[in-house]
Design brief:
- There is one protein chain.
- This protein has 222 residues and is an alpha/beta fold.
- It has 2 domains: 1-30, no CATH class; 32-220, Rossmann fold, CATH 3.40.50.
- It has 8 helices and 6 strands.
- Helix 3 (68-79) packs across helix 4 and helix 4 (82-96) packs across helix 6 (125-137).
- The structure holds zinc ion.
Length: 222
Amino acid sequence: MSLIYPRACEACEALLYKHEEMICNSCLMGLPKGNFHKHKNNIVLQILGGRVPVASAASLYVFEKGGKVQRLLHAIKYEGKQSLAIMLGKLLGNELKEVDGFCNADLIIPVPLHVNKLNKRGFNQSEVFSKGLSEALNIAVDANNLFRQTETSTQTRKRKYERWENVKNVFELKNKNALKNKHIVLVDDVITTGATIEAAWQALKEVDGIKLSLATIAFAEK
Ligand SMILES: [Zn+2]
């Protein structure tokens, strides 16, 4: 098949060798890693500081405008490359296998899309990424309990307070008791201001004894 349809790297578009899958080895080695889980006071925890009590935070990559990580995210989100999202989830999961705050968590919960958006796109990229993470860490995914109840409008031009107004009460839980005393890993595709995580926390904090860690495909400086 590869003679008829040569496969290209999703990050740099170079042709792949037989043993390479979706991302060429050179990109795999060179893509900018987040590595936040290796640092106790990392930038993601600083951004969320005081707003959301996150125990541990991890991002696979650091996003740069026009860079390879942006290309990967684009391929997942707009070209429907779900297997790429699974592969990235496994990559991060393998890095977190022996990291406290992740390997001992009870449940992985992807940040949900609103049902209208889900129907339009056909899948939730955070949920697909979660599947790869789940396989590597051997932790179950729960993609049903947390749901997005209102659709948020585009947030790019909004000021911080308006942005906050825009996301509060966005998420709800179907069954609080199911998460009681559980350590969950909340998964999103990209974290920037933390507004989405903060909004999700408004729903999750109603659960007694819940502990939260955070995993994303990428971190993007605003
Ligand atoms: Zn490449």
